């Protein structure tokens, strides 16, 4: 057994499935997860001392590259001053001001420690603000693992959802409607029937948890129009897309002003930090000002805030997103050419520092489309690339991430590996 195999066996004895988040177990691609010893720039090293070019990026946070020296210095300095106080700090104000400046829809913001907390709190807030219970989410979008969001579609368009996880009482998902992504007619019909009882609609504006699927301009325009007309809160879940697809998030690309936005991943720069914010009149409903309870022992943690602030400083530098987007396009174009040359059915899409790879001859528009892609082909691609020391997320249903540390040379190296893998797949 190599060291990854040994560690996986050891882990499974004391950690359920050997991992602390299920996708890490390689369940959908098979094989043994790589236990990571360290990461730097565009690389991660596993415990068997193999170095990989990494396109997981900790599932999004590592946008400036792993262990960026300026971020590490900021973390070190903050840590020397104490790890947690349970009292307000100036850094929290600075990061709130920075977020409000970068996202004009966010007038006020509250910090939490995970994306799950951010979306759960935003939904409670929307319900408290509107005095309504029903919420709408879209099939294939992931908003963290709180009870009312672990839900799959009911039997008909206007029937409320069923739990998608054991341990979630059906009563808890009784208020969650699950609609198909990008389906304008379904949205219109639902609002026509139930609009005045909908507290909020939560959307991944560029879905990154069913690979990468864009919301269409008509869809988001209609969503904004209907939620405004019916007094429902529109929540953009930008935990993944925020500061990832553009400095102003997906909302800046859509030209849509949501009522609330949830953030995570990039804003913590690799530390546990997330946030939700938006309209001041809505945010005023949170305790201690209002009656919607929300709290956290480690919320606004000074070390996490220091990592986040430094990351936000780096991504605001001139040309950061232009370079990132150009590099992402270089990679996806290289992959497309390699697949075409080998006649492997394959498509790509990208925005900013996020990209999708689809083993299909079409671009998916919703979850059903994504489910029709060839996941066996993805598995072969994934393992072929891993064997050539390039790491992608171990699932066909996850987006991939570029960092500023991925140079054009490293990207060309990645494309060369892909050429070999596609050729193998065609043979
Ligand atoms: C990752 C993610 C979450 C959950 O964030 P955690 O920090 O893992 O709890 C929520 N929404 C979206 C869109 C995400 O990508």
UniProtKB/TrEMBL annotation:
<dbReference type="GO" id="GO:0005737">
    <property type="term" value="C:cytoplasm"/>
</dbReference>
<comment type="subunit">
    <text>Homodimer.</text>
</comment>
<protein>
    <recommendedName>
        <fullName>Glutamate-1-semialdehyde 2,1-aminomutase</fullName>
        <ecNumber>5.4.3.8</ecNumber>
    </recommendedName>
</protein>
<dbReference type="InterPro" id="IPR015421">
    <property type="entry name" value="PyrdxlP-dep_Trfase_major"/>
</dbReference>
<dbReference type="Pfam" id="PF00202">
    <property type="entry name" value="Aminotran_3"/>
</dbReference>
<dbReference type="GO" id="GO:0030170">
    <property type="term" value="F:pyridoxal phosphate binding"/>
</dbReference>
<keyword id="KW-0963">Cytoplasm</keyword>
<dbReference type="GO" id="GO:0008483">
    <property type="term" value="F:transaminase activity"/>
</dbReference>
<dbReference type="InterPro" id="IPR004639">
    <property type="entry name" value="4pyrrol_synth_GluAld_NH2Trfase"/>
</dbReference>
<keyword id="KW-0413">Isomerase</keyword>
<dbReference type="GO" id="GO:0006782">
    <property type="term" value="P:protoporphyrinogen IX biosynthetic process"/>
</dbReference>
<keyword id="KW-0663">Pyridoxal phosphate</keyword>
<keyword id="KW-0627">Porphyrin biosynthesis</keyword>
<dbReference type="InterPro" id="IPR005814">
    <property type="entry name" value="Aminotrans_3"/>
</dbReference>
<dbReference type="InterPro" id="IPR015424">
    <property type="entry name" value="PyrdxlP-dep_Trfase"/>
</dbReference>
<feature type="modified residue" description="N6-(pyridoxal phosphate)lysine">
    <location>
        <position position="265"/>
    </location>
</feature>
<dbReference type="InterPro" id="IPR049704">
    <property type="entry name" value="Aminotrans_3_PPA_site"/>
</dbReference>
<comment type="similarity">
    <text>Belongs to the class-III pyridoxal-phosphate-dependent aminotransferase family. HemL subfamily.</text>
</comment>
<comment type="pathway">
    <text>Porphyrin-containing compound metabolism; protoporphyrin-IX biosynthesis; 5-aminolevulinate from L-glutamyl-tRNA(Glu): step 2/2.</text>
</comment>
<dbReference type="InterPro" id="IPR015422">
    <property type="entry name" value="PyrdxlP-dep_Trfase_small"/>
</dbReference>
<dbReference type="GO" id="GO:0042286">
    <property type="term" value="F:glutamate-1-semialdehyde 2,1-aminomutase activity"/>
</dbReference>
């Amino acid at each position: 057994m190599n060291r990854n195999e040994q560690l996986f066996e050891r882990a499974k004895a004391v950690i359920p499935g050997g991992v602390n988040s299920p996708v890490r177990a390689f369940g959908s691609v098979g094989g043994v997860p790589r236990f990571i010893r360290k990461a730097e720039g565009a690389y991660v090293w596993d415990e068997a001392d193999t170095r990989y070019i990494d396109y997981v990026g900790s599932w999004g946070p590592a946008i400036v590259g792993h262990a960026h020296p300026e971020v590490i210095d900021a973390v070190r300095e903050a840590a020397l001053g104490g790890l947690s106080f349970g009292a307000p700090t100036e850094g929290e104000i600075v990061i709130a001001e920075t977020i409000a400046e970068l996202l004009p829809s966010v007038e006020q913001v509250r910090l939490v420690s995970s994306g799950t907390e951010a979306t759960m709190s935003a939904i409670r807030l929307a319900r408290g603000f509107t005095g309504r219970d029903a919420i709408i989410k879209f099939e294939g979008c992931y908003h963290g693992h709180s009870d009312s969001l672990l839900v799959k579609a009911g039997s008909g368009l206007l029937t409320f959802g069923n739990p998608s996880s054991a341990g979630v009482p059906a009563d808890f998902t009784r208020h969650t409607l699950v609609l198909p992504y990008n389906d304008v007619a379904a949205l219109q019909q639902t609002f026509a029937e139930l609009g005045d009882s909908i507290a909020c609609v939560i959307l991944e504006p560029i879905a990154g948890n069913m690979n990468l699927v864009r919301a269409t301009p008509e869809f988001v325009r209609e969503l904004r129009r209907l939620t405004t007309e019916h007094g429902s809160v529109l929540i953009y879940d930008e935990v993944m897309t925020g500061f990832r697809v553009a400095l102003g998030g997906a909302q800046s690309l859509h030209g849509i002003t949501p009522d609330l936005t949830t953030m995570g991943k990039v804003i913590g720069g690799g530390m546990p930090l997330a946030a939700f914010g938006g309209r001041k009149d809505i945010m005023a409903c949170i305790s201690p000002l209002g009656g919607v309870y929300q709290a956290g022992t480690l919320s606004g943690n000074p070390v996490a805030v220091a990592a986040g602030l430094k990351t936000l400083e780096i991504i605001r530098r001139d040309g950061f997103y232009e370079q990132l987007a150009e590099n992402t396009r270089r990679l996806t174009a290289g992959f497309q050419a390699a697949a075409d040359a080998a006649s492997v059915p394959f498509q790509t899409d990208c925005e900013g520092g996020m990209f999708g790879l689809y083993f299909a001859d079409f671009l998916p528009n919703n979850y059903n489309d994504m489910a029709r892609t060839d996941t066996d082909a993805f598995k072969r691609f994934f393992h072929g690339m891993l064997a050539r020391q390039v790491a992608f997320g171990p699932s066909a249903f996850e987006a991939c991430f570029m960092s500023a540390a991925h140079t054009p040379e490293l990207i060309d190296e990645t494309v060369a590996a892909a050429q070999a893998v596609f050729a193998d797949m065609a043979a």
